[in-house]
Structures are given as C-alpha cells and as structure tokens.
C-alpha cells in the first residue's frame, strides 16, 4: 500500500509538472502576403526574438511561450477567421496588424471571444478612437500623433504650400489624411485637392491615373497616404513623372521595409514619421533598446524596424503584465496594463487607461541621401530624425477622444 501511495504521488507530481510546463500560445495575426507583407515579416522576427529571450529566462508563470501565426493578406474577413482559429488553438492573447481595418475587425472578434488584442502597425485614429474597446491595446502611435509631429515640421520648413493628397481608401488612409490636413492647414479641398486609391487591390493603372492628375496640378507638396508596397509603386511612377524633383513628397507613416523595397535613391528626401528607428535607443539613452538592436542585428543580419520593435515590445509587455497579475486571464491583464508606465526600447511609455493608446514619443523623419546610407555597414541607415514630439503632446486629450466617440454615437468609456 505504501508503494502504491508513493507511486500515485509521483504520478500526480509528474502530471502537475507536465501541466505546468504546457506552452502558452500567443497568436500573431499578420500579413505574410499582400502589399504589407514586408512589415508582417518584420513583426514575425521581432516576436520570435522576444519569445526566445523570455523562454531562456524561464518563460511566463513557469511555462514556455510558443507562437502560432496566421496570414491575414491584409484582408479583414480573413483576419477575423484567423482570430477564430487561433482562439480554438487556445491562444492566450493575439497581436498583429499593418492594416488598421484588419486590426479593428480582428480586435472586435477577439473581444467577443474574451481575448486581448494588441495592435502593432495600426495607425488609424479609429483603432483606439471610435472603434476602441476594452480588449484592444494599440502599441504604435495614432494618425493624429503622426500628424502633429509631421505638421509641426512641415509648417516650419514649408509654410503656406499647396498640397495634393493621394490616399488609400480605408480607415487608416481616411483618418491619416484628415489629421494631416488639420495640422498643416490644408483642409480646403479646392486649394489642396485629393484622390482616393482602392485598398487592397489597386492596380498600377490606378496609381498612374491619380499621379498624372497630381502632375497636372500646381501643388508643391505631394502627400502619399499610402503604405507598404503601395507606396513603393506610387513612388516609382512619381519619379517617372518628375514629381519627386518638383514636389516635396510626404508619406505620413514610413518604415525601414518601405525604403528598402524602393531603394534609398528613390526615397531620398521623403518626409514622414516613425514611432521608433534603430537609432532611437542611442538618442533616448536606452541601454535595453541598444541591446535589442545588437541582438536583432546579429540574429538576422539587419537592423530592426519599427514593425519588429512593436511586436517585440508587445510580447514583453504582455508577459510582464501576466507576471504582475499572476494570471493569464484577460480581465486581470487589462487591470495590470491600464495606466502602466514603463521603459523598454526608448524613453517613457504608458498604456493610457481611458483609451488603451500607448502614449510615446513620435519622430518626424527624412530619408537620407543614398551616399550617406551606403556608408553604414549594413547599408540601412535610412532616416534622419528631423522632429520629435513627446507622447503627451502628440496624443489626443480625453476631451478630444470623448468628442470623437460622442460624434460616432459611441459610449464615452471603453466597453
């Protein structure tokens, strides 16, 4: 009987250990194909690095992490189905983006399933604005935050210029154009015209058409509210039409991947914004950020982009919240995240409680001349930081956020 009891105790102990060591699944809902696939690949790289580091340090609550990923192709309907599949796999939380329409649709379905959703690259104001809810946390900045730092720079260097807008026809494009028009005093469409381009699925002929109309205008600033491969295609046509020589090109949200795809020669002088570049940790004196740049560069033979940094930060922030809450339950994690301030890859950041927007410094950047880029060992020193705005100044206030929610018929608190 004694041996039976001991054997049973041993079996129970082993079963408990096996259960405790069961991996925690994190679900990455990202574009592996489509116009934003390079930004998606960067997210994958950042997430995998974070997971490997956390596992090497003992995991989360005694359990290792594993990543399960699904391709959204930047299509909301497909992304929603991915959320359902990842939930069925037992994912503890979901993250991803590159298309705000994807992040918004995915976040809503995740909320219905009781899962937290962290937006990576989702710049639309709507993500944490009129479409915001308790289960959505946005790691990157909003369109309004980009517009404020960009408007500050453009108003100083190019005051009273005529703008021509070419915009992706979906939520990110709409809110980004609207925000930039407000901060650059280019609201009057009679003076500062604009055209929309289908997303996803625009053809080269569509870009040729709108850019030809831009060329026929008297505009001095060409605002390309496009992203990923769509921006690259438009830039090539703009170059052929001579627009890059006679207009200042503005692309509100730039990434390392975009410049790499187009080439620094084509993108030289383009102005936009970034929430993070690999130069930021040194600028902000972030030892942890500099270590991330070094580790990522050694692992992948390239510098980390803002896309990679976003996914990396999300995994770490979720893991930190789980440890502080001693729980994987979404409600406990929401409480742990709301109002939480931290420093990771740059200066001070905060998960703001009332809208779940990550409040952080935003940078205006300008693409360097090709000869300067080529001086760097990895040939990826693309951006000159030409402007900087603290998160508290860039982010909309509570009153502004509530006014937006009220106008959309939404509750004045997250539900």
From TrEMBL:
It holds the Pfam family Peripla_BP_6. The keyword Signal applies. Gene3D superfamilies: 3.40.50.2300. Residues 23-368 form the Leucine-binding protein domain. It comes from the Bacteria. Residues 1-20 form the signal peptide. The keyword Signal applies. InterPro entries: BCAA_transport (IPR051010), Leu-bd (IPR028081), Peripla_BP_I (IPR028082). Keywords: Signal. Belongs to the leucine-binding protein family. This is ABC-type branched-chain amino acid transport system, substrate-binding protein.
């Amino acid at each position: 009987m004694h041996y039976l009891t001991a054997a049973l105790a041993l079996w129970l102990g082993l079963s408990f250990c096996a259960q405790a060591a069961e991996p925690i699944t994190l679900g990455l809902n990202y574009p592996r194909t489509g116009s934003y696939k390079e930004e998606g690949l960067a997210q994958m790289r950042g997430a995998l690095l974070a997971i490997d580091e956390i596992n090497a340090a003992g995991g989360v609550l005694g359990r290792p992490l594993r990543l399960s990923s699904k391709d959204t192709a930047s299509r909301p309907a497909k992304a929603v189905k991915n959320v359902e599949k990842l939930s069925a796999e037992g994912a503890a939380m979901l993250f991803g983006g590159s298309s705000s329409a994807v992040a918004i649709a995915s976040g809503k379905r995740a909320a219905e399933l009781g899962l937290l959703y962290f937006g990576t690259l989702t710049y639309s104001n709507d993500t944490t604005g009129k479409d915001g809810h308790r289960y959505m946390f946005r790691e990157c900045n909003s369109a309004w935050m980009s517009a404020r730092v960009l408007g500050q720079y453009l108003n100083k260097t190019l005051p009273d210029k005529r703008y021509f807008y070419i915009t992706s026809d979906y939520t990110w494009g709409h809110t980004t154009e609207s925000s930039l028009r407000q901060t650059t005093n280019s609201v009057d469409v009679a003076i500062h015209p604009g055209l929309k381009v289908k997303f996803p699925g625009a053809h080269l002929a569509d870009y040729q058409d709108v850019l030809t109309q831009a060329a026929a205008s008297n505009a001095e600033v060409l605002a390309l509210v496009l992203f990923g491969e769509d921006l690259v295609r438009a830039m090539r046509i703009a170059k052929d039409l001579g627009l890059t020589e006679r207009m200042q090109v503005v692309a509100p949200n730039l990434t390392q991947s975009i410049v790499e795809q187009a080439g620094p020669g084509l993108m030289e002088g383009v102005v936009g914004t970034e929430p993070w570049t690999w130069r930021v940790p040194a600028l902000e004196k972030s030892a942890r950020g500099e270590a991330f740049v070094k580790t990522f560069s050694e692992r992948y033979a390239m510098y980390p982009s803002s896309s990679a940094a976003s996914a990396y930060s999300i995994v770490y922030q979720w893991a930190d919240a789980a440890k502080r809450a001693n729980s994987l339950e979404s409600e406990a994690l929401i409480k742990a995240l709301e109002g939480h301030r931290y420093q990771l890859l740059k200066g001070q950041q905060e998960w703001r409680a009332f809208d779940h927007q990550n409040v952080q410094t935003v940078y205006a950047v300008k693409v360097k001349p090709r000869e300067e880029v080529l001086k760097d060992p990895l040939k990826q020193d693309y951006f000159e930081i030409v402007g900087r705005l603290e998160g508290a100044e860039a982010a909309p206030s509570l009153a502004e956020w509530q006014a937006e929610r009220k106008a959309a018929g939404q509750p004045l608190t997250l539900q």
